[in-house]
Amino acid sequence: MSLLLVERLTRSFGGVRAVQDLSFAIPEGGIHSIIGPNGAGKTTLFNMISGVLRPTRGTIRFRGENIAGLPPERLAARGISRTFQNLQIFFNMSVLENVLLGGHLGLDRNVWRALFRLPRLRAAERRARAEAEALLERVGLAEWSDAPADSLPYGALKRLEIARALAARPELLLLDEPAAGCNEKETREIETLLKSLVADGMTIVLVEHDMRLVMNVSDHIIVLDHGRMLAEGRAEEVRENPAVIEAYLGQAAVAGGHAP
Amino acid sequence: MRRLLGSHHGGLVLLVLAILLMPLGFPNSFYFDVAINVGIAAIVCIGLNLLIGYAGQISLGHAGFFGIGAYASAILTSTHGWPPLLALLAGILLSGGIAFAVARPILALKGHYLAMATLGLGIIISIVLSQEVALTGGPDGMPVDPLTLFGFEISGTWSWYWLVGGTLVLVTWLALNLVDSPIGRALRAVHSSEIAARVCGVDTTAYKVLVFVVSAVIASLAGSLFAHFSGWLTPDEADFLRSIQFVTMVVLGGMASTFGAIVGAALLTALPQFLTVFQNYEHVMLGLVMVLTMIFMPRGLVPTLALRFFGDRS
Ligand SMILES: Nc1ncnc2c1ncn2[C@@H]1O[C@H](COP(=O)(O)OP(=O)(O)O)[C@@H](O)[C@H]1O
Ligand SMILES: [Mg+2]
User: Fold this and answer.
1) Of A45, A212, A236, B276, which has the maximum CB count within 10 A?
2) Which residues are close to ligand 2, an ion, with C-beta < 5 A?
3) Which one-letter DSSP state was computed for residue A8?
């Protein structure tokens, strides 16, 4: 059974069909990339899968159950986490606190224990801090732990969002352009990180414009154009698909440049 | 010094020291009166700061909850002969209940709409308190019995000073604990990005309701203390100007700073007592303080000073 099964999914904004009649399946495990030119509907798709937007039509099945239209906090509880293309960092908190908030559902949320800071809460907080530190280490932000989030450079904030999403121990991780604005070195670190997450059994859906990263890590690629699926397959299949070259990679190739 | 102020309990130690040592410099009982009123306002502001400063939700009607607490204590003790502690708890239940009942629809609103809705709520409460003459004595006010706790009557400035000081320390400690917990982080997340908070599993509505109720309950507690302390209660204590005072205290002291709330309450309670200009033009002065704070230090006094002297950004 697929981990995620999207069937005839449509989302319109007024007259604009951002996603139309889209169907695909994501099996458990591995990295599944969704590529396509700007405005293809990738972020809109993520917004629907994570509950931020309601679909106009269609179903989204996660482990067989239709989750279309459920609110984000319920989907988080079911194991879906995401990052945002336009950063949504909690700038009024420290780096570590951002990660701690990512693990919110696994923490002690009893009001009385919080008000009186009872030992049980203190112990749980200590454990959570240790785990959050470990995650920061994993994304290469260990030395920033106590810094205010608004003191971090852009590339570091991208990785902070990944650490925050990981703190929820998701089964399905949606990454919206994690390498955008990152330099070569940072992009390679993200590549290593993604591979190690998959080795731990996580399922990742990746939206990314950096084609080298996509081709290096993807087990499976879906190409979107104008909200519809243009092609689907393994990296080399997609790369050689004439429709893809024509509609997407082709634009730049015709112009004499490199693929975007 | 920096570690002391920055750490969780360092600030609390300073607060306790300030409360213990201040009376040494008080020349007469007028200063005790002012200090007690500062403490009562500070208690309200600590709660209000959880709502405004941490969760980012405005309320222009919190004097309403202060008034409910005050009148619950006044009416239940003086008219019905209830023990003061029970009356205080009844006020808390009533304030908390009303806050809980209205929180969902009100906190679904944002920005100006939320401000208008809470303003309306405060006005309704204050009108009810002035109009129910049979119950509250109307605009002329009503007398309030002295406070007795476990058989002891709290009378005289010293006992009131310690009672309010102790309550302030307790409320400060609880607020600091709450802020530095998963719940406090969820509140700050709601302030920063509701969508990211929800994606992280935070039920933003539930937390807004929670913090609204908590802040209302704290205001109610302070109102009950105030009623017994002053011995005479008028609906002015629950009116719009009072709500604006509380908000200005929070903004001046520094949003998202528990000690800022105390400092703001101290300045805006004490200044009118010592500067007659301030007293005579209170509306104008409050407006002026608000405007100047917004222009020159939008983060408020305590966070701005902490940043300047200790490079502490929190
Ligand atoms: N909230 C919105 N309101 C109106 N139009 C939107 C909204 N979000 C996305 N769109 C439109 O939907 C289309 C797809 O956008 P998006 O999903 O962001 O594409 P991508 O992430 O692939 O670049 C675009 O035409 C965009 O303008
Ligand atoms: Mg996008």
Assistant:
1) A45
2) A 42-43, 85
3) E
Per-residue pLDDT of chain B (314 residues; tens, 9 = 90+): 455 555 567 899 999 999 999 999 999 999 999 999 999 999 999 999 999 999 999 999 999 999 999 999 999 999 999 999 999 999 999 999 999 999 999 998 988 889 999 999 999 999 999 999 989 989 999 999 999 888 788 888 999 999 999 999 999 999 999 999 999 999 999 999 999 999 999 999 999 999 999 999 999 999 999 999 999 999 999 999 999 999 999 999 999 999 999 999 999 999 888 887 777 787 788 888 888 888 888 889 888 888 887 765 44
In CATH, what number is assigned to the domain containing residue A242?
Answer: 3.40.50.300
Is there a domain that residue A65 lies in? yes
Tell me whether residue A105 is in a domain: no
CB contact under 8 A, A114 and B178: yes
Q: Which ligand is nearest to the CA of A47?
A: 1
Residue A172 lies in a domain: no
Q: Is residue A45 part of a domain?
A: yes
Question: What is the residue extent of each domain of chain B?
Answer: 29-240
Alpha carbon nearest to ligand 1 atom 24, residue: A39
Structure tokens at A123: 């112990």
Q: In what order do the strands lie in the sheet with A65-66?
A: A16-26, A4-13, A57-62, A65-66
ipTM of the complex, rounded to two decimals? 0.93
Which amino acid type is present at position A94?
A: S
Instruction: Give bridge partners of residue A4 from the DSSP assignment.
Output: A26, A62
The answer to whether A91 touches B151, Cβ cutoff 8 Å, is no
Residue of B200, B299, B314 to mutate, interface with A, max A Cβ within 10 Å: B200
Question: Which of A51, A104, A114 is nearest residue B202 as measured by Cβ atoms?
Answer: A104
Tokens 């609390």 sit at which residue? B12
**Cβ within 8 Å, pair A88-B193:** yes
Query: Phi and psi at residue B61, in whole multiples of 5°?
Result: -135, 20
* CB-based contact, B307 to chain A, within 8 Å: no
Q: Is the pTM of this model over 0.80?
A: yes
DSSP A148: B
| Residues found in chain A | 260
Residue B55 touches partner A, C-beta closer than 8 Å: no
Domain count, chain A: 1
Q: Is the dihedral of CA B106, A86, B198, B188 positive or negative?
A: negative
Which ligand ends up closest to the CA of A86?
2
Find the domain containing A241 and state its range. 1-71+205-260
C-alpha Rg value of chain B to the nearest Å: 19
Q: Check A73 against B184: CB less than 8 A apart.
A: no
Is B230 in contact with B154 (CB distance < 8 Å)?
no
